[in-house]
Structures are given as C-alpha cells and as structure tokens.
What does this fold into?
Amino acid sequence: MSDRHIISILLENEAGALSRVAGLFSARGYNIQSLTVAPTEDETLSRMTIVTSGSERVIEQITKQLNKLVDVVRLVDLTEGPHIEREMMLIKVRAEGSLRDEVKRLVDIFRGRVIDVTDAFYTIEVTGTGTKLDAYLETLPTGSIMETVRSGVSGIARGEKGLQV
Amino acid sequence: MELTGADIFVRCLAEEGVEYLFGYPGGAALHLYDALYTQDKVQHILVRHEQGATHAADGYARSTGRPGVVLVTSGPGATNTVTGIATAHMDSIPLVVFTAQVASALIGDDAFQEVDSVGITRPCVKHNFLVRDVRDLAVTIKKAFYIATTGRPGPVVVDIPKDITAHKTEYFYPETAVIRSYSPVKKGHQTQIKKGVELLLSAKRPMIYTGGGIVLGEASASLTAFVRELGYPITNTLMGLGSYPATDSLFLGMLGMHGTYEANMAMHECDVLLAVGARFDDRITGDLAQFCPHARIVHVDVDPSSIGKTVPVEVPIVGDADTVLQDMMKRVKASDTKPDSHALKSWWQQIEQWRGLKCLTYQKSDELIKPQYVLEHLYELTGGDAYVTSDVGQHQMWTAQYYKFEQPRRWINSGGLGTMGFGLPAAMGVQFAHPNDTVVCVTGEASIQMCIQELSTCKQYALPIKVVNLNNRYMGMVRQWQEFFYEKRYSHSYMEALPDFTLLAESYGHVGFKITKPSDVEGVLKEALGMKDRLVFMDFITDQKENVYPMVGAGKGHHEMHLAPCNAVVPTDRELA
It folds into this structure.
C-alpha cells in the first residue's frame, strides 16, 4: 500500500542542508511529490515540508534516514495526527469575452483572488489543499490556462502540538 | 594569541591526539603543509596517490578504533579520495578527511584545481563541512572528530579554502562539541531489552548473528561472555570476524554468500535470531523472501535506520552494542527462565551434523598451489595473531574462511563497498599503528595493481608488510561468476601482460619471492615472516580454476548452497539457476 505522507522538518539553516535532503531522496529512490523550504522566525533554522508516498516500511526508512542527517534537528510525520495543509497556486488564465465572467465566478467559488488583470488575462491566487487546487484547475475551461505555479505543500499540526527545538 | 588557519589546523590535530596524517600536498594545501613543516607533534605520511592516503587512514582506524586522518589538496586531490571515503562510509569507519579548496573568492569560478568537494562527497560521508571563516575552523574540526567517532561512526570531510588557512584569528579549541541536531543513542530501551531477552530464552533453535558493529562498538568481550552464558551458536559477518573467537566451539564460521554450510543452515532453520551490529545486507540474506523463514528476530543496532530496513524485526533495540549486550547479560543472569537445555541439545546435534560435512574441505594438489593451502599455512605460522588486510575477490573470501581470527580489529577488509586496491595501503596504516606486529596483506594479481604505487611509500617509511599475492592470472571472482552464470565466457577477466612481481618489488627496494610449487609454500612463508624489517612480496602462482565454496548464488536462499565438488554428501539443492 502506498500512502501519501507529509513530513515536516526543522533543519539547520546552512548552505547545503537542502541538497543533503534532496540527495537522500534521489540516492535511495524515494519519491518526492513536493518540497518546500524557507527560514523560520529563528534565522538559524529552516522549516521544510516534504510530501512523499510509499509503503509503511518505506516511510519509516525515510524518517529514519532523514533523522540521521546531521543537519536535521527535528521532524514529524504530520499525517500521523490531525494537521492542516495548504498550498498556494498562482495561475494565469485566458479571460476574454464570455469567459471573463465565468472565470471570475469560479475564483469566487474557490475563494481565490484575482491579483492581476490585463485585457485578455487574469492572474489568480488560490490557496488550499492540493486536492482543492486540482479541483479548481479542472473547473477551468479547456485551453484557458496559460501558466500555473504551485508552491508545494506547507503543513502544520493542529492544536498545541508543535515542532520546536 | 592570533594564529593563522594553517597553524590552527595543526594545533587542533595535536589536541585530538592525531599521530599520523596521511596525505599529499598541492597548491591549495600549501599553507597547511608549511605549518606541518615547522612542528613535530603530528607526523605526516606522504603517500603516492590520495586513494592510498584514505585507505591507509582507514586501516589505521580499523585496527585501532581511533579516527584516521587525511589531508589532500583541492580538485584531483579531493576526487582521488572519494573511493576511500566511500569505502569507509560503507563499513562505518571513522575518518576525518581534510580537503584543501581554492580561495573563497574563486569558488564557483571554475578555478584551477577547483571541484565542489562538499557536493561530490555528500552521498558518501556521514557529514561534511565547508569552512567559510577562519573563526569557525577550530570548532568545525572539533565537530568533525566528534561526528566521525560517535554513534555509528563514519567519514567526515572538512573542506578548507586556501585563504582561510592564511587568515588569522584567536586560537581556542573547545573541549566538547555541541551539536543540537546530533545526539547518538547509547543506552537501549529497557522494556525492549527485556522483551528481547525473554524471546531469546524461549528459543528452541536459537541463533546469534553479529557484524562489524561489535568491532566498532568494542563489544567483543561482552558478546563472548553473553554467547557463552547462553551456549547458543554464533556466526559472524565478514565485517564481524574476530569479534567472537573463531576457534571456539560455539562459533559456526562466517555466514552469507560464502558462509559455511553450518552457519547458513542454522540461519535457515533457527526459530529465534539475535542480530547485533549487523545490517542484513544482500550478501548476508540472499533471497529476502527465503531469509530465516522460521525466525522471530531481535535486532540491536546503534543506527535506527539499520533496523527493519530490509528484514522485518519483532524486537528492535536501538543502542550501543556493548551497553545493550551488558544489559542483556544482566537480565539473562537474573532471569528465572533458563535456556531450554533439552531443545538446545537436539539443536546442537543438528548443527554438528551440518558441521560434519566439513564444507571448507578442498581438493589438495601436489602440483598446483591451492590458495586455501597458502592461507592455512599463513594461519598456522602466525598463530592466528597477525593483522591481516585483504583486497577484494576470491582471496578475500578464502582469507575470511581459512584464517581463524581470535580477536577483533585484526581482519581489515573492504566489506560493503568491495574496493579493489584497498589491501596494501590499508596495511600501511595498520603497520604504522602497530609497528612491532606482523601485518600481512593478502591480495591477488588484479587487486594489488590498483594501488601498487604504495610500495614506494612502504619503502620510504620502512614498513615490513608481508604481501601474499595469490596470483591466478584472473580476476578470480569475476572468472568464477562467468564460469557459473555466463557459460564460461571469460569476458575480460584474464590478466594479461602481468609484471614480474618479484622484480617489481625489488625495484621498489623490497624483497620478492615467486613460489610455484606447493612444497615451497610453507618454507617461503616462514622465511618471509622471519624478515622483521623488510617488506616481502610473495607471488604465489596458484591454481587458476579454484572456486570459492560454499556459495549461495545471488538471489538464492541460505539452504540452496553450492558446495565444493569434493564434498561427497550434498543434502540440499546444489544446482544453481
């Protein structure tokens, strides 16, 4: 069985830390669906979110191998407990004639925002789970999408649980 | 007092108690070499190739337990160390490798002798560093030694740009390294240990399988006491040989692809398996689907990622091998349950029957030198007390099978990576660490040529290594697989245009012997071992067609061993697919 897991990592904000994690996944043939990373409020630390999939044994190995990296300070598999995940997508859509209203309506339904407008195009921002973004893309008229940019998943545990040093 | 980065480097090594620094100078390393010139605390050993430096440091580390230290220049100096670093990484050997780097301002400009050493070595180190500021140098070196030697040991690379070695700063060497993201586990979880001991004591057909972790964790004495307390059979991996005395009756020999019949059969039939400091690699398990089909497994390892990696485990215990074995011993002694002596007796009867097959018997010959014959004599003449290094291939397996190691850290070979060229430079490191002991390098005519330039280093430092070259004019193990699995199409495994090794050794200033008759084997070995101050290169012209038996074919189960043709009784399927 191959399940989707969201692994959240606190790692040293050092040059090369990202390539250690990325290198581990490629060297051991693990799957990465998305990877996001940015410094935290503590500038010595970065927070990384990896979406991966694999059998229980593979996921166990992934977390063990990640923990073995010297730059990894803490990690948690968010999918083991209640959590929130969000992904942001920027999307440039053809919006001319009758399409213009239709596209705007869909943005509202998905609680997105139009953040840039030209005569022929809307640039839209939508945030949500990956499935919501997928669903939004599917609603758009065929051929109307010029460009999409997805941030990859960020995740956080619900309630008082947190990933801290 | 302010010191240059180069002087700080040397001071730090002295603080760490580094005796020998194996290295090779070059442009980016010149400040460092200049600092070495004006001190006498750390002795620099000039090798002939950077790969040799890493293997020598590795041999030093394997035979002493202390970290091996290397210094090379940037670019090709660094890339030449990669094979040695990967070798150490696969076998968890503590090395600290310093690679000089082009000046900070030039990094990224494709400067002369520039290479991304941190990037190139990343997949084969435990950790690596690029020093960006001279003020970080001392603390980085402290961290490097700490990481290399603790937990599951491994190689650490420290890349130092040339300008850093010229910059000055106040020198301070920290007593301890503090790394918030790195805290190796020592003590095992007591509940798990309790479960493990209960399972072990409930066994009807127990088996103990231990690996290099016993050697690395200095757990040999605890293991020996524990095994003897239980009276259970024990086998060692290639990396674990010597951690349990090979002549002890509880020892079944090595297991795995070229393991003994009794060790592999006991693995196949056991009902409880205790694995300590071993990682269930493919040369041990063979076909995973057929591995220990009846066993409930207890696995002790300092590295959590080794547990459950390839084989599911019922009782995982993360901890240092020595500490956990001592805790297990206490619980065994305090337990009301004792090993089931009745079941154990019939288990041992079964094992003795397997042992009775004498799977290491080989066809003796009066005309051709059998490699096993040479090794049997080497063992007898050295009393099992020599430090023995090897290269990789048939000679390595035969040494593992026929040289009975009684103590840990005596058997030095590249197990995980299987690096040809390892043996001679590794023997140099061992000989530096143990100047008064007999150090033998068992090799073959193919392997030895991969680092043969180090014969010159051996001359410079008067290292009296005894080279046993089992010369069958083939890459023996390649030839064996071609014979078995490729219908005897010996593609590129024949070694043509070999040098006259005797003359070659002599040209380097050593003693060379060529031995062609079985009747000369013992005499020459005796004579060579008696030459305490000379390197002796013994070129044994051996039987070309000899194969290593038993053999579990790749992807086969332990019970599907291919036995030597001279073993009359073959109770299992001996046909290889």
